[in-house]
Design brief:
heterodimer; A: about 350 residues; alpha/beta; Rossmann fold; 14 helices; 5 strands; globular; B: about 475 residues; mainly alpha; 2 domains; about 70% helix; about 0% strand
């Protein structure tokens, strides 16, 4: 009986390992933020979101890591129209800091939350970029995710948090708030076994071959295609609270302030310099959400000052006419914002020099 | 805690390992603690209700035994047990339903009656464990079993985690004796248990949740699909709910078997039933047998003539509908079955009177058609079950009859994919029922079976649906 048990375990392990190896080989290799202006797989597989350490640029290069949300991801535009790409071009053109080999590593994605920002900031504790830009708005600290686990996140970032080197960099308050056994186990299992990631790619490939297969046979809420790379960029519909006109409602309250405080504290702990920037928004004073925006502005200003984190308010830096939505920019505003950011980077480096 | 989670995948082996090394008393205490942990995982406060139900019936059992010679006192104690359990169930499950309906009835007669909904969060599994504890009290009252004097083993009987949340609803006479001895766990138990768990997960994550996608589309906008698609959606729900619940029961039975404990089967291929009466012998067996033993039989069962049997059956099926949920569409689901069952028994009576019954040894050609007819009747009844309200029920039947404008939405040739999957499911069921597929698989060389199981694990990881569909029976 013991012999049979050992053989059974061996067969099971062999099949499981073989299938994981196959899945690993079949899963496409995703270019990193050094090569791409944004994650071509939208939420999935970005090396910066799933590997402990990032690829380093050449020795003469300087890097800016950009932590932001859908505004920086700019899924509605081709990658080269987004401000991160344009910022890199501007920094090189202007030879800011005497360097003409700048990289802007765009670690942004749709629907980013402070849960993910905190993990990416913890990862940055092990890396030495020349500057960290945290471009953020009130919706990144919504009350709805205050006590949620990693299952709330749409990106792969939580997988990083299951590694000891990153987990230990996250404060206790973070774990107390966001630790959910099932969510953390899921993130860990997905980090360990490529077989678990295989279905998403397989069904998106099926969808590429047979349009509709993904939504009808695999996931009714998934309508982006990791397999298809650059061709499509359709976001997963958010299952969130909506207002009277079906607009998304991200409540900003005292819990949000707590999340913001924690994030600023994490940025403060980085060995690289970090600048927190209020992202440009188009505010309609008649909109009930504007109160949250103003409260956020007040909070971030006072908290950045009290915590000693560099802060720039660019929330009203761009003309309202060139916004696609209240926070998404059209190409002209992306260019304008890149110029403003280039100035911020330059003045910061000059200040340091 | 849910069966289809990584938490359970971690919880189960830890509990099992500790169970295997502990002595009897240690096992009981440890399993009891593990069961409460399992139950209280998401909402700890629910544990108090479970404990109240346990204490109530433990005390009532002892009371009935103490006053063995005083029938009136015994009856009173039984009434206390039943009232206590039913009050708890009614308060959390039916208060708003009955309150709102009584208020409506009052208004109908000109009274100024209102009802403010309390919106209690329904404690998970309350319908299952209250029925289980009531069965214990009734069996003690009937002197079918002796009252359990050991609180730990009784509490474990009520809260045994594999079957706590969604059944099978066990009987004290079957489960309690197994919990009172140190079960020997063999390799066969482990192998059988793991196989059942894997099959259960496959049925839930790969089959039921996949059919749920189609069902959700159709029930969300029945007016917008073609008649064919709506029919398909309705049939897909039949497969979804069957594999969802039978898959859950498989995991429950498999998990219990890992501890050397046998719990009752809950399904016997109900989609191949020859008649509605046959369906109720194959579907949610632990509940239907509960109603048979503790409601239908005490009401008189078949003992008081045909008309009384039809009335008794109708009462039971209507209550069974209400058991599923505090809503009129569940009641109507029960009434639908009650009406059809009544017609079925009348037909049987006529057959008998007219001498139309098939004689012994005479060949039957009606099996296939009667199975298909029953299958359609059952699936149509599930329209009441699945619809969120009566308006959707109306829309669905309208669409099924082709009386709607329809077809503004289409799912193209995927409808045929689902039709193919339905057929495949039917073929597998037929192979299991008539060609003993399961026994044939069990006779394969163990190495081949092992390889098959390993591949099933891989298939589970690769083909499971990415759509968080809760177990349907959790809401009851």
């Amino acid at each position: 009986m013991r012999g049979k048990t050992i053989i059974a375990l061996a067969v099971f392990a062999w099949v499981f390992i073989l299938c994981n190896a196959l899945a690993f080989l079949l899963l496409p290799d995703v270019p990193s933020s050094l090569e791409e202006a944004r994650n071509p797989f939208r939420f999935r597989g970005f090396p910066e979101f799933v590997r402990g350490s990032s690829q380093a640029p050449s020795a003469d290069a300087k890097t800016v890591v950009l932590l932001s949300n859908s505004q920086a991801y700019a899924g509605e535009l081709p990658p080269n129209y987004g401000y991160p790409y344009r910022l890199r071009k501007l920094l090189n053109q202007r030879a800011v800091g005497g360097c003409t080999n700048w990289y802007v590593l765009n670690w942004s994605s749709d629907g980013m939350t402070s849960i993910e920002y905190m993990i990416l900031a913890a990862k940055l504790r092990h890396e030495q970029p020349d500057l960290v830009l945290a471009v953020t708005g009130y919706a990144d600290y919504r009350a709805a995710h205050y006590a949620e686990g990693f299952g709330f996140c749409r990106t792969d970032v939580p997988r990083l948090a299951t590694r000891w080197s990153i987990a230990r960099e996250l404060p206790r308050s973070y774990w107390r708030r966001h630790f959910k056994v099932e969510d953390t186990l899921t993130a860990w299992v997905h980090d360990q076994f490529p077989l678990n990631r295989f279905p998403e790619y397989f069904w998106s490939w099926m969808d590429f071959k047979f349009p509709g297969a993904q939504r009808l046979l695999y996931s009714p809420f998934l309508d982006y295609r990791p397999w298809e790379l650059r061709k499509k960029s359709i976001a997963k519909p958010l299952q969130l609270k909506t207002g009277p006109a079906q607009e998304l409602v991200f409540v900003y309250d005292r819990h949000s302030r707590e999340l913001l405080t924690e994030y600023l504290g994490q940025l403060k702990r980085l060995s690289s310099p970090a600048i927190v920037i209020s992202q440009p928004v188009r505010v309609n004073p008649d909109d009930f959400r504007s109160a949250w925006h103003f409260q956020f502005q007040e909070d971030i200003r006072s908290l950045a000052s009290s915590q000693g984190v560099a802060y720039e308010d660019l929330s009203q830096a761009l003309p309202g006419a060139d916004f696609i939505t209240s926070s998404h920019l059209n190409p002209d505003n992306h260019l304008r914002f890149a110029e403003r950011l280039a100035n911020v980077v330059a003045s910061h480096l000059d200040g340091r020099n | 805690m849910l069966f289809n989670t990584y938490t359970y995948a971690l919880f189960l082996p830890i509990v099992l390992l500790a169970y295997l090394v502990l002595p009897l008393r240690g096992r009981q205490l440890f399993l009891l603690a593990a069961s409460y942990l399992f139950y209280c995982w998401e909402t700890p406060i629910y544990g108090s209700l479970l404990l109240i139900s346990t204490l109530l019936d433990f005390a009532c059992g002892l009371g009935m035994e103490k006053y063995d010679a005083r029938p009136k006192v015994r009856k009173l104690i039984l009434a206390i047990s039943l009232t206590g359990n039913l009050t708890m169930l009614s308060f959390f499950k039916y208060a708003d339903f009955f309150g709102a309906n009584f208020a409506g009835l009052g208004r109908l007669f000109g009274f100024e009656t209102t009802w403010t909904p309390m919106h209690f969060l329904l404690p998970v599994g309350i319908s299952f464990y209250t029925f289980q504890t009531m069965s214990y009290a009734i069996e003690v009252y009937r002197r079918q079993i002796k009252a359990d004097r050991d609180f730990v083993s009784f509490a474990l009987f009520v809260s045994f985690f594999p079957q706590l949340v969604a059944g099978p609803i066990e009987r004290a006479s079957h489960l309690l004796p197994q919990l009172m001895v140190r079960q020997k766990v063999t390799m066969d138990d482990i192998s059988y248990g793991l196989t059942r768990i894997l099959f259960g997960l496959f049925r839930k994550l790969v089959i039921a949740d996949r059919f749920a996608i189609m069902t959700d589309h159709v029930f969300a906008a029945p007016d917008s699909y073609s008649t064919f698609t709506v029919w398909l959606g309705v049939l897909c729900f039949g497969i979804q709910i069957y594999h969802d619940f039978a898959g859950y029961s498989d995991i429950a039975i498999g998990s219990a078997r890992l501890f050397g404990i046998n719990i009752m089967e809950n399904f016997r291929r109900p989609m191949l039933s020859k008649s509605l009466a046959d369906f109720w012998n194959r579907w949610h067996i632990s509940l239907t047998s509960w109603f048979r033993d503790y409601l239908f039989t005490p009401l008189g069962g078949f003992r008081r003539g045909g008309v009384r049997a039809i009335v008794n059956g109708s009462i039971v099926l209507t209550v069974c509908g209400l058991w599923h949920g505090a809503s009129w569409h569940f009641v109507l689901w029960g009434v639908y079955h009650a009406v059809l069952m009544s017609l079925y028994y009348i037909w049987k009576f006529v057959q008998k009177r007219m001498g139309w019954r098939r004689k012994k040894g005479q060949r039957s050609y009606g099996l296939g058609p009667s199975m298909l007819f029953t299958y359609l009747l059952v699936n149509l009844s599930l329209v009441f079950f699945r619809s969120p309200d009566m308006a959707v029920v109306g829309q669905i039947f309208h669409a099924l009859a082709g009386l709607h404008a329809g077809a503004s939405l289409a799912i193209g040739w995927y409808a045929w994919v689902f039709a193919g999957l339905l057929l495949l499911n039917f073929v597998v069921e037929v192979l299991q029922e008539f060609f003993r597929l399961n026994e044939r698989i069990a006779r394969l060389p163990w190495g081949l079976r092992l390889l098959g199981m390993s591949l099933l694990v891989v298939l589970l990881a690769a083909a499971a649906v990415n759509n968080d569909v809760p177990y349907i029976y959790f809401q009851f």
